[in-house]
């Protein structure tokens, strides 16, 4: 089989070496958030099989890709996720981003199958606001809290709580959310996210510079991650990461992720849809060249 030499890395023409795969495994979802970007793609053909998922990750890992993020839609709608996880090659970090509605009953089996950690979307601690944002059914908010609790209990840690900041809706809750994470010691950390406004919701756009200034004014230390050069603020012992994807040249210049859509396409950029490489029918022997092709099409969305 013509798998790449383990020493070959995938570096694009902007010098960005791909280190991480962000894989959507379904476009289906059990919530309907007002701002959802659907990972920049809704496929109309069928979802990748477990075999295809495993082959893509195997080939990626031969290219030195050592991190995998599983996303969706809502990834927990796939009942065969554990089956895929146990068949993956060894990686440095396998994580999933989920709304956690279905997490409580799956957390333990996911951990056993090899999942390292989860990010959980929780935009508000107020059940009424949570409902407004997610259009969820009755009882959903409590299920999410149970999911967070269970994730911590089984060791899917650190659990990152994703909070998309929405002006005049939840942007006054940062302190409460921080207090909530502190209740879990270091096991839960807060991740604030600037809204990428795909749905024409100008009333919810926040001033990210202002948020950054206020985080800075109360933090005792700031760290910078390699991925996207994201900043992490230490505030009274708690960690807060701020994801600023909008009009941010530094963010895109430090993007080391290749995306995979739920219907099996390599997607060079979240925000570009006309340069994807279809691998849904590819054999494992054909995959390396298709990876090289996708990476050759990577362009920073935002550049100076
Ligand atoms: N524009 C853009 N947004 C991204 C990218 N990667 C993640 N995001 C956004 O960042 C936010 C957090 O995403 P998560 O799925 O929790 O994952 P993550 O924080 O990137 O990954 P980890 O920090 O490794 O857990 C979401 O709003 C994503 O849409 C990217 O490459 N480009
Ligand atoms: C698309 S969701 C998929 C995983 C899962 N359904 C969930 O909500 O966690 C992945 C992450 O993207 C975030 N997200 C979705 N739409 C966004 C937008 N327009 N701007 C910023 N983040 C967004 C969500 O809050 C979530 O944390
Ligand atoms: S739960 Fe996730 S995928 Fe579903 S609508 Fe909300 S952000 Fe989108
Ligand atoms: S180039 Fe920028 S917008 Fe595109 S995926 Fe990377 S960070 Fe996101």
UniProtKB/TrEMBL annotation:
GO molecular function, one term: 4 iron, 4 sulfur cluster binding
Residues annotated for [4Fe-4S] cluster 1 binding in this entry: 29, 33, 36
Binding site for GTP: 22, 69, 97, 160, 257-259
Cofactor: [4Fe-4S] cluster
Protein name per UniProt: Probable GTP 3',8-cyclase
Presence of keyword GTP-binding: yes
Annotated coiled-coil segments of the chain: none
Family of the protein in this entry: Belongs to the radical SAM superfamily. MoaA family.
Pfam families per record: Mob_synth_C, Radical_SAM
The protein's role, per its UniProt record: Catalyzes the cyclization of GTP to (8S)-3',8-cyclo-7,8-dihydroguanosine 5'-triphosphate.
Residues the entry annotates as binding [4Fe-4S] cluster 2: 252, 255, 269
UniProt keyword list: 4Fe-4S, GTP-binding, Iron, Iron-sulfur, Lyase, Metal-binding, Molybdenum cofactor biosynthesis, Nucleotide-binding, S-adenosyl-L-methionine
Positions contributing to S-adenosyl-L-methionine binding: 35, 73, 121
Cofactor comment text: Binds 2 [4Fe-4S] clusters. Binds 1 [4Fe-4S] cluster coordinated with 3 cysteines and an exchangeable S-adenosyl-L-methionine and 1 [4Fe-4S] cluster coordinated with 3 cysteines and the GTP-derived substrate.
């Amino acid at each position: 089989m013509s798998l790449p030499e383990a020493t070959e890395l995938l570096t694009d023409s902007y010098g960005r070496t791909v280190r991480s795969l962000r894989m959507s495994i379904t476009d289906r979802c059990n919530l309907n958030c007002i701002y959802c970007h659907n990972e920049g793609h809704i496929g109309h053909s069928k979802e990748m099989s477990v075999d295809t998922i495993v082959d893509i990750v195997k080939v990626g890992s031969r290219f030195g890709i050592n991190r995998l993020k599983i996303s969706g839609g809502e990834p927990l709608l796939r009942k065969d996720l554990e089956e895929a996880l146990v068949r993956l090659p060894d990686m440095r970090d396998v994580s999933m981003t989920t709304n956690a509605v279905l997490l409580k009953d799956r957390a333990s089996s996911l951990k056993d199958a090899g999942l390292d950690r989860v990010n959980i979307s929780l935009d508000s601690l107020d059940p009424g606001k949570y409902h407004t944002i997610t259009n969820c059914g009755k009882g959903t908010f409590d299920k999410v809290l149970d999911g967070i609790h269970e994730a911590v209990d089984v060791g899917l840690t650190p659990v990152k709580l994703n909070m998309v900041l929405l002006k005049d809706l939840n942007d006054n809750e940062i302190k409460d959310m921080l207090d909530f994470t502190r209740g879990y010691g270091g096991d839960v950390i807060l991740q604030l996210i600037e809204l990428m406004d795909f749905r024409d919701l100008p009333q919810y756009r926040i001033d990210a510079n202002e948020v950054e200034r206020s985080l800075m004014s109360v933090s005792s230390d700031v760290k910078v991650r390699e991925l996207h050069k994201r900043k992490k603020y230490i505030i009274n012992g708690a960690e807060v990461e701020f994801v600023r994807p909008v009009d941010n040249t530094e963010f895109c210049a430090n993007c080391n992720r290749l995306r995979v859509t739920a219907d099996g396409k390599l997607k060079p950029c979240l925000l570009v849809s006309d340069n994807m490489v279809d691998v849904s029918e590819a054999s494992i022997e054909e995959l390396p060249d298709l990876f090289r092709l996708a990476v050759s099409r990577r362009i920073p969305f935002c550049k100076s």
